[in-house]
Specification:
The complex is a heterodimer of chains A (701) and B (128).
Chain A: H1 3-27, H2 33-53, H3 56-73, H4 81-102, H5 111-129, E1 155-162, H6 174-184, E2 186-193, E3 211-218, H7 222-227, E4 237-245, H8 323-350, H9 353-376, E5 378-380, H10 382-399, E6 403-408, E7 413-415, H11 416-437, H12 441-446, E8 453-462, E9 465-472, H13 479-488, H14 500-505, H15 528-537, E10 541-547, E11 551-559, E12 564-572, E13 575-580, E14 584-588, E15 595-598, E16 602-607, E17 610-616, H16 617-620, E18 634-639, E19 644-649, E20 651-659, H17 663-666, E21 673-678, E22 684-688, H18 690-698
Helix pairs in contact in A: 1-2, 1-4, 1-10, 2-3, 3-4, 3-5, 4-5, 8-9, 10-11, 11-15
Chain B: E1 4-8, H1 12-22, E2 28-32, H2 35-47, E3 54-57, H3 66-73, E4 83-87, H4 92-101, E5 105-108, H5 113-127
Parallel strand pairs in B: 1-2, 1-3, 3-4, 4-5
The chains are: A alpha+beta (701), B alpha/beta (128).
Chain lengths: 701, 128
């Protein structure tokens, strides 16, 4: 199989599977014909595609799904949660099957899924069967006029088939027509006439010299039998006569007809070189049955097709690009921006107006370019959000709760890498809301709330940052309980006044769980600390708001992109470090009385009446500097998820966008350092990682 | 000789496989993802005075299905262009519907490359 085709198939399959899942979830409990149609189409396309790449097991599975959805489309089946459940399971199986096949494995056929689909289908067909037997021809069967039809009401037909001589050469294979005919009933007799055969030396191997007569017994109507030849009857001599009802008993031997040369060879006899080498008559299979077009032309020039073609000319509004290519592009543009910044700096020292304005223009363009390239990597959060519909549905079932998921801002765009990495933390927060936040239905009713709990998933962009919120209208977080637990664990001294957000921040400590009982869903030891860590790895932050009885909101704040950081450059001695602006609250020069050392808490700095830990960066990173007196230096107040603290720096140089270069890739991982950037003057500045910094300064944060 | 073929199908996999089949046989393939885009493409091609030699269309598509698409094509000056239906549908009622709408042929997916080429040859030859 061609690689290019498989790749397209893989991409499209993923899209279709997502569409199937989303569509099914939207479908549940309602009957929107448009939506049903869309889901049906998705299954239909999946089946067609699987046929093209030859994944027969996928065809089988999607065929059943399609049939079930078709019943739904025709209004014979309601998309109740049971049926949707069966179909969702089938989507899961489909995913496994497709992924397996694409990986070159042959995963076992999910028999129980197939059975469940088939059972549902049989059920629908059975229910329908009473009123309108499936087998009966749609066109009024002739029982009415004809003498009482015996047994199944079979009719006999006599067909005379004289095809044009060049039919084989034009891509139509009579065998296919015979096979299709055979599906309608049984052949009583088939006679192949070879009287037109020329002498051997005059024979053209591509021509067809044979013609046939067939006696068919079928419950179908004349019209249906004629329809087999819809696309060939204009150019070929096709006659179909109805001979009247067939006797119930096995046919009395063959009706009178001229010189039977061959007895009952159901499909046509061996052809002189048929265009499609299909040696033996197979039982009609759903896939292998190309219905010939009306007498097409010219012998197919062998199977030398499927020569790997160029990438397709995609005449669509979008094109697919590998993310690798994009990453490279982003990287290169990053280099360009750095290069331009250096030129800029040199130009400034040259005092040439002409040079300066040229460089300024260049600077402008390169930033524009960078912004646009970054935007290419951005994709809407919709796809990720939609996946949570399924998560919530499953959670509700598992927990015995009624949960509605409301989403907004699904068009909000985020860097593809960020989206991929944010999915897990979000899922965790949603589980958390469903499990700990929302109450069981009885409890909600008792509290005067609607029985169905709601989880909101919102995304929006504000001030150059992306916010994603997970809220619920559940019981809220019990502040006192968390404080109690924090005191028990020695995270805080009793009697210390803490704000709500400081109290809630304890929830993100490792191993911190207030759940009274551990459930299947959450509380498996993987706690909110992992969520925090994931988010901080994305250079984001998370905060919590909650009101007892009303619900909670977890708000994630993320940078627009991971490739660029809004950095604050600070100096320590000769060294220039970059701090992420996102984490900076303010900076100040403390007065002598604002610096204190407290036993067990280390050095503290007072910020508006509150004492925060002070970290001397030069000590932490062992950098030589003169300014070791805080009152002569500056303190930058940093906020991480779990705490606020001050870092001591010599000076603040200014804000600048920094293109992040991975240290791990170019050197090695350094604790507390997220990466490096190249400054305008060509010097390297390390970008500090706040979470790592906190760990470094306070131990296991 | 005109060797351009318009392929209308919502499946990228199908469009790709048709293109990969027909290109080596010397055909140019223009793709459209549904009937509506198919009509737009036809209009564009006509405006450039380069209408396709034939159209290959799916039946089941979003926005505008194949039957509607065929009917619409038959209302335009390009109604002479043969349209081959390439679909997984095999029911007579569907075929009849297609035939009535004006389809010239019917091929059931998945197709054999050599069959498709032969059919396409037939149609593109008979045109001129």
């Amino acid at each position: 199989m061609d690689e290019t085709l498989l790749k397209i198939f893989a991409e499209e399959s993923q899209e279709i599977i997502e569409a199937l899942e989303k569509g099914l979830l939207d479908l549940e409990g309602q009957q929107d014909p448009e939506e049903i149609n869309a889901v049906f189409r998705a299954a239909h396309t999946m089946k067609g595609n699987a046929g093209i790449v030859g994944f027969e097991d996928v065809v089988d599975l999607t065929h059943l799904m399609e049939s079930l959805l078709d019943e739904m489309r025709q209004g014979n089946l309601v998309p109740d949660s049971e049926t949707v459940g069966i179909l969702l399971t089938a989507v899961d199986a489909l995913k496994v099957l497709v992924e397996g096949r694409l990986a070159g494995e042959s995963p076992p056929l999910p028999q129980e899924v197939l059975d469940a689909l088939q059972a549902r289908l049989d059920q629908v067909k059975g229910a329908k069967g009473g009123a309108q037997p499936e087998a009966a021809a749609p066109a009024a069967p002739p029982q009415a006029e004809e003498p009482p039809a015996p047994a199944e009401g079979n009719n006999r037909f006599h067909l005379t088939l004289r095809f044009t001589r060049d039919i084989l050469a034009t891509g139509t294979d009579p065998l296919q027509l015979f096979l299709e005919l055979e599906e309608l009933g049984s052949f009583e007799k088939v006679v192949c006439h070879a009287d037109d055969l020329p002498p051997f030396d005059e024979m053209n191997p591509d021509d067809l010299y044979l013609w046939w007569e067939i006696w068919l017994v079928s419950p179908e109507s004349l019209g249906t039998v004629q329809n087999v030849f819809i696309f060939v009857r204009d150019e070929n001599e096709i006659q179909v006569e109805e001979l009247g009802p067939a006797p119930a008993q096995p046919q009395p031997q063959a009706p009178p007809e001229p010189e039977p040369k061959q007895e009952k060879p159901a499909p046509p006899p061996p052809q002189p070189k048929a265009p499609e080498p299909q040696p033996k008559p197979q039982p009609p299979q759903p896939q292998a049955k190309p219905q010939p077009a009306p007498a097409p032309a010219a012998p197919a020039s062998g199977g030398k097709s499927l020569v790997p073609a160029r990438h397709p000319v995609v005449h669509a509004a979008t094109i697919r690009v590998e993310t690798d290519k994009l990453d490279k592009l982003v990287n290169l543009v990053g280099e360009l921006v750095i290069g331009v910044a250096r030129v800029n700096q040199i130009a400034e020292s040259q005092a040439s107006d002409e040079l300066n304005s040229a460089v300024e223009a260049l600077d402008h363009i390169s930033r524009d370019l960078q912004e646009n390239v970054m935007r290419v990597r951005m994709i809407p959060v919709e796809g990720t959000f939609n996946r949570f519909k399924r998560v919530v549905r499953d959670l509700a079932a598992e927990l015995g709760k009624k949960i509605r998921l409301e989403m907004s801002g699904t068009e909000t765009e985020l860097d593809k890498n960020v989206i991929e990495q944010i999915a897990d933390p979000l899922k965790h927060l949603i589980r958390n809301s469903a499990d700990h936040g929302l109450e069981p239905p009885e409890e909600r009713l008792a509290a005067g709330k609607p029985e169905v709990g709601t989880i909101w998933l919102r995304a929006y962009q504000q001030e150059g940052k992306i916010f994603i919120e997970v809220s619920d209208d559940g019981r809220g977080i019990d502040r006192a309980k968390i404080l109690q637990k924090a005191i028990e664990r020695g995270l805080v001294q009793p009697g210390v006044q803490l704000s709500d957000s400081e109290v809630f921040a304890f929830m993100f400590q490792p191993g911190f769980s207030t759940a009274d009982k551990v459930t299947e869903v959450s509380g498996r030891g993987v706690g909110l600390d992992v969520v925090r860590q994931n988010i901080e790895e994305l250079r984001g932050s998370v905060e919590v708001e909650s009101q007892v009885g009303k619900g909670s909101t977890f708000r994630i704040k993320l940078p627009l992109t991971l490739a660029i950081i809004d950095g604050m450059t600070v100096r320590i001695g000769e060294e220039i470090l970059t701090l992420p602006v996102l984490s900076i609250l303010e900076s100040l020069r403390p007065k002598p009385e604002e610096i204190k050392t407290v036993e067990g808490r280390g050095e503290l700095v007072a910020v508006r009446g509150e004492f925060l830990p002070l970290v001397r960066l030069y000590e932490l990173f062992d950098l030589p500097t003169e300014r070791t007196d805080p009152t002569q230096a500056l303190v930058v107040i940093i906020e991480s998820v779990s705490k606020r603290f001050g870092v001591l720096v010599d000076d603040i140089l200014g804000e600048q966008q920094a293109v992040i270069k991975s240290l791990e890739q170019n050197y090695q991982k350094l604790e507390g350092v997220a990466g490096a950037t190249i400054l305008g003057d060509g010097r390297v500045s390390l970008i500090l990682d706040i979470h790592g910094l906190e760990k470094l300064a306070f131990g296991n944060a | 000789m005109n060797k351009t073929i318009l392929v209308v199908d919502d499946s990228a996999t199908l469009r790709m496989s048709v293109e990969m089949t027909l290109k080596p046989a010397g055909y140019e393939v223009v793709q459209a993802v549904n009937g509506k885009e198919g009509l737009d493409k036809l209009q564009e091609m006509q405006a450039r005075n380069q209408p396709p030699a034939m159209i290959i269309s799916d039946i089941n598509m979003p926005v505008m299905d194949g039957i509607t698409f065929i009917k619409e094509v038959k209302k335009t000056p390009l109604k002479y262009i043969p349209i081959l239906v390439l679909t997984t549908e095999r029911e007579d009622s569907k075929k009849l519907e297609g035939k009535k709408a004006g389809a010239a042929g019917w091929l059931v997916k998945p197709f054999k490359p050599e069959t498709l080429i032969a059919v396409v040859r037939k149609f593109t030859r008979s045109l001129t």
